[in-house]
Specification:
This protein is mainly alpha-helical. 80% of the residues lie in helices and 0% in strands. It has five helices and no strands. Helix 1 runs antiparallel to helix 3 and helix 1 packs across helix 5. 22% of the residues are buried.
């Protein structure tokens, strides 16, 4: 991997990690607006905590080269669940965020596999 590719690889992982860490905050702090969304979707506050904890842990593991592949796979699973939830309960416009994150995570998986 050349220097430019390494910079892109790290920038992508840092960007995604920050995004998932930010997303986890509302769930882990039990933000009422977030809990209302989860209730609207038929999920419990405990489920919000579980999702927030997974986003936090996997977001951190995304920054560790030895675990970033597996973290990206786990986060892709979370994004699949988010997409299904939005399809079932919200407008199709709500799929944009999980779709963007999924494409970026797929880029991480690709780069990890290509360079392993």
């Amino acid at each position: 991997m050349n220097k430019t590719q390494k910079i892109i690889w790290w920038a992508l992982r840092i960007l995604l990690s920050l995004g998932f860490l930010a997303a986890s905050l509302g769930k882990l702090t039990q933000n009422p607006a977030v809990l209302d969304m989860f209730a609207h979707w038929g999920y419990s506050p405990t489920f919000a905590l579980i999702i927030g904890a997974l986003e936090l842990v996997l977001g951190v593991l995304l920054l560790v080269p030895k675990t970033s592949f597996y973290a990206a796979i786990g986060l892709l699973g979370l994004m699949a669940g988010a997409a299904v939830t939005h399809i079932m309960h919200d407008s199709m416009g709500e799929l944009l965020r999980p779709a963007i994150f999924s494409l970026l995570l797929a880029g991480v998986v690709y780069l990890e596999k290509r360079n392993s």
